Amino acid sequence: MYWVSKYRLNREATANMPGFWSWLRNWDDNWFAGQRRMSGQEKFPYQSSAYYLTLAGEPSLEIWLQVPNFAALEESRKMASSLSATADWRSNIDEFNRYLEFVESRLVEDAPIPVRSRSQIGM
């Protein structure tokens, strides 16, 4: 299952895309390490993260966080709630908001059918 958050890229991001990607790479490394450090937890509730950029339409970024189950989502929510009052957390969020504006979130899962390769579907 995946927790997907969509963000609109603001002017600061679109005016300097190489700088934005560099910032995002550093932010990603520091964000996840910082959350573990601030929460005192060795293990993080997410199994993986991936980033997707919209190629047609409004410039937006989707962040896909893989979680094993609903309990992990609840663990993440509790962690965020406890950290939200800290100065480090607020600083991370303020920096994130310089480049991105929240649009929506959704929860998705893999469909219960097999994935087929191009050769299997005659392409």
Helix proportion:
40-55%
- Count of the domains: 1
* Biggest sheet layout: 4 strands, antiparallel
Specify the CATH architecture. Answer: 2-Layer Sandwich
* Tally of separate helices: 4
Molecular structure report:
The protein has helices at 11-15, 17-39, 70-83, 87-99, and strands spanning 2-9, 48-53, 60-66, 100-108. It has 123 residues and is α+β, with helices and mostly antiparallel strands. It has a single domain (2-108), classed as Alpha-Beta Plaits (2-Layer Sandwich), CATH 3.30.70. The chain has a 4-stranded antiparallel sheet with strand order 2-3-1-4. A hairpin with a 6-residue loop joins β2 and β3. α2 (17-39) packs antiparallel against α4 (87-99). The longest helix has 23 residues, at 17-39. The mean pLDDT is 84.
